[in-house]
Amino acid sequence: MGSFNALTICGNLGKKPELRFTTNQTPVASFSIAQTQKTGDVEQTFWIDVEMWGKPAETFEKHHEKGDFVYVTGGLKYEEWQDKNTGAKRTKLKMKAWQFQFMPRKSQDGQQPAQAASGSYSQGNDAGQNPVDDDLPF
């Protein structure tokens, strides 16, 4: 039996997503999502680093700001590199998102609207190989 790597994260953006382009002009959005867990009286927040590729990355960056509540689906990505200063081996787990849903923004009074997500935008599993048209789902 093979393994399956899928993850869905809902949380708030720590800052505006950063958009960059690879040498072959593929867009890549990088952002982090805050997850807060409460156990009894103890509340703990941790951050998940996320990257998204292709047209969905451009759309995500264009429509999201710091603090927005986001819903993304993807898989875990294991990165390994050598520290330039110390030569030590470094590793990190991050999420490679391949789909997101547009979520309603908070109203002026800070309350979350009752309306559900307005749609989704998917790039498929391999960035750049499944282009998505420019029509937004709203």
Write out key terms for the chains shown.
single chain, 138 residues, mainly beta, OB fold (Dihydrolipoamide Acetyltransferase, E2P), five-stranded mixed beta barrel, 1 helix, 7 strands, 7% helix, globular, disordered C terminus
Describe the overall structure.
By secondary structure, the protein is mainly beta. It has a single domain (7-122), classed as OB fold (Dihydrolipoamide Acetyltransferase, E2P) (Beta Barrel), CATH 2.40.50. Residues 113-138 have low confidence and may be disordered. The chain has a five-stranded mixed barrel with strand order 1-3-4-6-5. The protein is built from one helix and seven strands.
Give a quick rundown of the structure:
This protein is mainly beta and 138 residues long. Helix content is 7%, strand content 49%. The chain has a single domain (7-122), classed as Nucleic acid-binding proteins (OB fold (Dihydrolipoamide Acetyltransferase, E2P), Beta Barrel), CATH 2.40.50.
